[in-house]
TrEMBL record:
GO terms for biological process: regulation of DNA-templated transcription. Residues 133-229 form the OmpR/PhoB-type domain. GO terms for cellular component: cytosol; protein-DNA complex. One of its GO terms (molecular function) is phosphorelay response regulator activity. The gene is pdsR. The modification 4-aspartylphosphate is found at D53. Pfam families: Response_reg, Trans_reg_C. The keyword Amino-acid biosynthesis does not apply. It comes from Pseudomarimonas arenosa. This is Proteobacterial dedicated sortase system response regulator. Residues 133-229 bind DNA. InterPro entries: CheY-like_superfamily, OmpR/PhoB-type_DNA-bd, Response_regulator, Sig_transdc_resp-reg_receiver, WalR-like, WH-like_DNA-bd_sf. Residues 4-120 form the Response regulatory domain.
Length: 229
């Protein structure tokens, strides 16, 4: 059975491009130009995944409002922001509202469809019974690759997909410096250096929220980041 992906994007050409790309990959894709039409349609039936722009027509933060509404209806619905607004404040706002990831519109269509597929894989893995899988254990950290799940002192760290793959890149070879370009490739995103820095800051904050003594991620100035050996 094909999965339904909804796109809420007010720019017609972009919306059409996204819809065509998703349909080529076998998804049933539906598009909406504004929050109101999307909300009315979702009241009848929720899609399997939603991609939302932050600014929707005259509503500067219409996407945030839609995300809040959808998350209140379903805790498990995958929600992905795809927007030109990628300031640290906007990203944090989107993630605090419960989005699974926040990507820049500079991402390519193949990268977007790969991210959608990864969100579905994570959803399926979390629904499956625990089975033997690839696990990285390092001090208080446990990373379960197939379930795309990270825990610290047995408490789950609420990472987005982008953040998960960045942590994976660091812990796979502890002590080895990973450049910003390497982190981008691992996370399948194309962003500027400042956005990578923002991702690392948010990753640190999420671990620190569970353990105020967390200090596993080192910044190697001019080179990148590493997980403490």
């Amino acid at each position: 059975m094909s999965r339904t992906v909804a796109i809420v994007e007010d720019e017609p050409d972009l919306r059409t491009n996204y819809l065509e790309a998703l349909r080529r990959y076998g998804y049933e894709a539906v598009g909406f130009a504004d929050r109101e039409s999307a909300t009315q349609a979702f009241a009848l039936r929720l899609p399997d995944l939603v991609i939302i722009d932050v600014g929707l027509g005259d509503e500067v933060e219409g996407g945030f409002e839609l995300c809040r509404h959808l998350r209140a209806r379903s805790a498990g619905l995958p929600i992905l922001f795809l927007t030109a607004r990628d300031s640290d404040l906007d990203v944090i706002s989107g993630l605090r509202l419960g989005a699974d990831d926040y990507l820049s519109k500079s991402i390519s269509l193949p990268q977007l469809t790969a991210r959608v597929a990864a969100l579905f894989r994570r959803l399926e893995a979390l629904r499956e019974p625990v089975k033997k899988e690839s696990v990285i254990s390092l001090r208080a950290l446990r990373l379960e690759l197939e379930r795309m799940r990270v825990t610290w002192n047995a408490e789950e760290v609420p990472l987005t997909l982008t953040e998960f793959w960045m942590v994976h890149a660091l812990v796979r070879h502890p002590g080895h410096v990973r450049s910003r370009d390497q982190l981008m490739r691992e996370a399948e995103v194309v962003v500027d250096d400042a956005t990578i820095t923002s991702h690392i800051k948010r990753i640190r904050r999420k671990f620190e929220a569970l353990d105020d003594k967390f200090d596993e991620i080192d910044t190697v100035h001019g080179a990148g980041y590493r997980w403490r050996p």
